Amino acid sequence: MNISKSRKIGTLAVCVLAQLLIAIDLTVLHLVLPSLSEEMRPSTTEMLWIADAYGFALAGLLITMGNIGDRVGRKKLLLIGASLFGVASVITAYAPTAELLIVARVLLGIAAATLMPSTLSIVRNVFTGKERAAAIGISSGLTILGFGMGPLVGGVLLDHFWWGSVFLVNVPVVVIMVIAGALILPESKNPSPGRIDVLSVLLSIIGMVGIVYTIKEIAYKGWGHWDIAVAGVLGLGCLLTFLLRQPRLAEPLMDLKLFAQRAFSATIGTTILAMFAQLAVSVMFAQYLQLVIGWSPLKAGLAGLPGMGAAIIGGVCTPLLIKAFGRAVTIATGCGLSAVGFALYSGIGVTIVYTDLLAAMIVFGFGLALILAVATDTVLGVVPKARAGAASAISETATELGGALGIAILGSVLGALYRNDLVVPAGVPPEAAGAIADTLGGAVQVAAQLPPEQGAVILTNAKLAFVDGLQLTMLCSSGLMALLAISALFTLRGVPKILEDTPTPTPVHAG
After folding, report:
1. What distance in Å separates the CA atoms of residue 367 and residue 361, rounded to the nearest whole number?
2. Which residue, 170, 30, 17, 33, is CA-closest to 89?
3. CB 333 within 8 A of CB 370
4. Under 8 Å between Cβ of 164 and 39
5. What angle is formed at CA 164 by the lines to CA 154 and CA 442, rounded to 5 degrees?
6. pLDDT, tens only, 7-54
7. What's the CA gap between 501 and 328, in Å, rounded?
8. Alpha-carbon distance 317 to 80, whole Å?
9. pLDDT grade, residue 79 (50/70/90)?
10. For the segment 168-226, what is each residue's pLDDT rounded down to a tens digit?
């Protein structure tokens, strides 16, 4: 695609803006839940759906939306998705009931599912070779910055406005993105798309939602609930049927032949395992800063800015490192640095020395950017441009699945360690003891309602138990990333430094 340099820069800016919007939106919800709960008084079930409806819609529709973008045009799908995101943000901000709020969160998830693969596939079609690696490096670093900006933006808005303001702020960003996108973005799509298999769409949606629901509910409630068993069996059954159906289709929704390429399959596997550790520990660390150290969301967000800055530098340096050392060494270096960062984080206690935290977050942020930038560029570089949307969707699904698994499994491990180490003093009422043993947040709430001396003892014991569990979880994550670094050296060995355009195969349609 032959376009001017200035238009390429504008295209990257629009795509990065879309990714920042999604990243910030993903992180602000947990900040507004306390205020939202106090004002709207949703039931426990409604609160869970408010928190998770977005993720269910996003995970279920990524693969389908990536394929739709390949067929109808990535620019068109991005503009439609951005417009829907703006409308859904307004509905979310002013939702008068929990039911309408859940519907609005579903709409936001659908919109995000259109934006995520569209942005990457547009970048894939506009940039090639070294330019693409540089563009994706910048994009990855700024996306990580977006995750750090979420608590920052949310904290400032909640200090001055009502909870809906954190969603309403999306609207002017969407307006800018739609106008700029309409003027700047080039259109691209698969020249021989074929038809979308409706049954595959339904199987992928039910399968992914079932799996993600099962993972999240196990993290919330543990094993032994009939709804979790039904969702798990249904999800696995639909995904298995989906996978068995794809090779029989002339135009599959997910081209399983892509996984025959070692670079593609190894990178997807690395992404799942990396996000397994990264996202889970990020959530746990947010709890640590706010509940153990006592920082506000705004202060925690400000404290994390150096790590976000390191991520931007890591993203910019990625193409230089690929050129000098190759993809295998670069992504292995990112995994190794993340392992070092986790090991440094394991030295935290119930009190904090910011300089120690600073070293850990800088090393971690730089390493994470290397992993995401190399992985994204490799996945997009080894597939034909015509299938860029579908490949982007697979990459984003791997990220979502890895993160959900990490939160569920590592979160459950941390919860078990917390309960095992927790010492509840004598004289605490049984119902209060149950809340204390459930989560650190429950212990903080109970401690505030008990006599000062008893509350102080409970709070101290709960913080010590949480920190002990967090330290061990950090060390486990460090070990996982170290093993992943070694694995990457072998599985990505021989992948070219520069991935040139792959020719698009001509599909054969049954007459």
Report:
1. 10
2. 170
3. yes
4. no
5. 65
6. 888 888 898 888 888 877 777 776 676 677 667 777 666 776 777 788
7. 20
8. 33
9. very high
10. 888 998 999 999 989 988 887 777 767 888 898 899 889 888 887 887 777 666 667 78
Place of tokens 């569209």: 118
Contact 64, 205 (CB under 8 A): yes
Q: Residue 398 CB: number of other CB atoms within 10 A?
A: 22
Number of other residues whose CB lies within 10 A of the CB of residue 191: 10
Q: Give 258's DSSP letter.
A: G
Partner residues linked to 384 by β-bridges: 502
Separation between Cα atoms, residue 37 and residue 42, nearest integer Å: 6
State the Cα–Cα distance between residues 113 and 81, nearest whole angstrom: 8
Distance of CA 376 to the CA centre of its chain: 14
CA dihedral sign of residues 14, 17, 23, 27: negative
Query: Three-state SS for 495?
Result: coil
Q: Please name the residue ranges forming H helices in 95-225.
A: 98-126, 129-160, 165-168, 170-184, 198-221
Question: What is the number of other CB atoms lying within 10 angstroms of the CB of residue 453?
Answer: 9
What count of Cα atoms within 13 Å lies in the side-chain half-sphere of residue 285?
A: 26
Residue among 215, 218, 225 nearest 405 (CA): 215
Q: What amino acid is encoded at 303 in this protein?
A: A
The highest-confidence range among 47-61, 365-379, 391-405, by mean pLDDT, is 365-379
Residue (of 11, 261, 258) closest to 131 by Cα position: 11
